[in-house]
Amino acid sequence: MCHQWLVAANCGADQETYARVRQEYPGTGQWFLQKNRFRSWFDPNFCSTPLLWMNGIPGAGKTILASLVIEEAQKLQDVHIAFFYCRYQDNDKSTFLRVARGILSQLLLQDDGLLSYLYNKMSTSGQVTLSKETVAKELLEIALKAFEKLYIVIDGIDECEKDERHKIVSLFEKTWESLPQGDADQLRCLFVSQDDNIARKDFEKMPSLKVTESDTQRDIVTYVTAKSLRIKTKFDLTADRQLLIQDQIIKSADGMFLFAHLMTSYLLDQTSVAELENELSPEKIPQGSTRLEDMYLIDKHCVDLGSGEAALALLCLGYLVFEGFDVEYDELDISERVPSGYYGFLDYAYAYWSRHVDAYLRVHDTNESTLREVSESAEVFMDMYWTQPQTKTVVPKSFFARWELLKDNRNFDELVVAGYLAQRQLVALKTHATDAQAPKLCNMLTKVRECLENVVSPANATEKLRLMYGKDIFRCPKVHCVRFYSGFSTAQEREDHVLKHERSFFCSFPGCAMAILGCATLKELHKHETDFHGTFDFDDDEAEYPDLPPRTVSYDCTQCDAKFTRNFNLKNHMRSRHQAAESRPTYVCTTCGKSFGKKGDCDRHETTTHSRAKSFVCGGELKDGTPWGCRREFNRGDILKRHWTSAIGKVCMLPKQQEEEAEAASSNASARTSTVSTPNT
């Protein structure tokens, strides 16, 4: 359940991909492992540079080197490793929150002690997934300090936005700085990025290791030699011509491994010797630091980001106004269109039409005809689906300003609101409803899905229908949920899943039904754990969201006419009025032995009368005045002891234990010295 809450990126798949690349060319990157600065960082027994920034020019093969470091670290004994590969414009791999999720998910698999702490946080967070940076920061700081030797590798950190990159680097820096001086090498961090002025500011406090052209030359020669032999074989070239091509690519690569890879792959894609020779002409091959992708994406206009996003926006908008989506038309028969795969693109178009419009507007060029086409398609789309939402929506100024390029649209104001609501659905927030998109659009999705569930159900579906719509047709209505697209095999599974979105406060006691079903509010969770488990730490944060209006419930006494709104009051009434005195439970003070008829009275007596009932605090001061512990207060001593047995509590207790061990060792040494020095009489 904790891993589902983290929703972490699959870092292991990335590592396997880059490891396979290296396996094709044995020996790749071995030179890096011999670098003195790297060895001083990597040595598990002695480390002079716990934080290290590896940098180089774009395309130098830094990611492949990072995968090699990870693989070597995984071979070390008594060393734990966690890593993350950042990716530009990939929301799952370019933010502090995603990096934190990825690292936490890996550390959770390596230390069972973190599980209980993370589970408690998840249970009381009120979040279906970990979506608060403050919570992620707290969890990550604790997890990083829970290991005796931990290596962290973060590749491509320059592909994150400036603010996100700063959050990532500063958290690891501050965590390392907070470690005791004797444990300075407990945490090792390797950050991998391009060397530019912007990134340099974030890494100014740590030593750097630059990957130069001379470093990568041997790997590039090995790689290009193998590829050029394939070119020779495909086009039946002479050995001399193959060597000329090999030298030409190596010289043009200028230390960029990526250039060598893209250029050789491009040449292998040619279909004739004439085409090959044309692409190898001096005016065709990029020289110096010119990137090969410029030739593809800019010079040849093979791919244009703006036109690509515009095409996807037009595809989604145009698709959603097909006549098969006009569910308000009485004669429309959705089931007739299902067998043809008519609705196979619906989930994606519904979820991402606004994101593609927004992405196009971000990179809009001077092509006014494309802008008009997008505007016209959006106008038709709004005519078909717009109705005023029940609640007023305030659109952020930045979003509104970006969409002002469409200000000539007849439905501009409505379009901006609909676009913002559609994008807001992609984020797991508690503050907006499932139908936050234009109401007619939501209604259309609901009706089409209801029909699909009947036609493509497991009992009726053919293999062709399953291929077009998937085998799990019962899908979650929450757009931000992965089950919006993949779904479940039965309606009951879907309903059980949806409850988790609505009831996102989970009981922390294993085996309890509420640990699976959850509660609607934190207050309800407090009451449940108090009533059914007898204890709860009320020092946690209050719920952030308003509770639902309470239902009016009457609890009637079966022996008189008394009525109560709470079952607790009814029980007290039954005990005090209708239960024989000898059969009533008694509660005895554990200090003085005084008896009470109510547990609350006994607890109040112990709290106010006996000093031992004061709050229990994790922490204190060492003899040198240094504070220890997390200073967290607990209502009961047994809860404090349970805290100290957890992975987090062990970290709190460590300074105190070290002091006691040092005193014991000193005392033993003194005793031995006294025994040796005292003469026999």
Automatic annotation (TrEMBL):
UniProt GO molecular function: zinc ion binding
PROSITE patterns for the chain: ZINC_FINGER_C2H2_1, ZINC_FINGER_C2H2_2
SUPFAM superfamilies (UniProt xref): beta-beta-alpha zinc fingers (SSF57667), P-loop containing nucleoside triphosphate hydrolases (SSF52540)
Keyword vocabulary terms for this entry: Metal-binding, Repeat, Zinc, Zinc-finger
UniProt entry tagged with the keyword Hydrolase: no
Region of interest (Disordered), residue spans: 657-681
Compositionally biased tracts (Low complexity): 664-681
InterPro entries noted in UniProt: NPHP3-like_N, P-loop_NTPase, Znf_C2H2_sf, Znf_C2H2_type
Keyword Repeat part of the UniProt annotation: yes
Pfam families: NPHP3_N (PF24883)
Domain of life: Eukaryota
Location of the C2H2-type domain: 555-583, 587-615
SMART domains (alphabetical): ZnF_C2H2
Protein name (record): C2H2-type domain-containing protein
Phylogenetic lineage: Eukaryota, Fungi, Dikarya, Ascomycota, Pezizomycotina
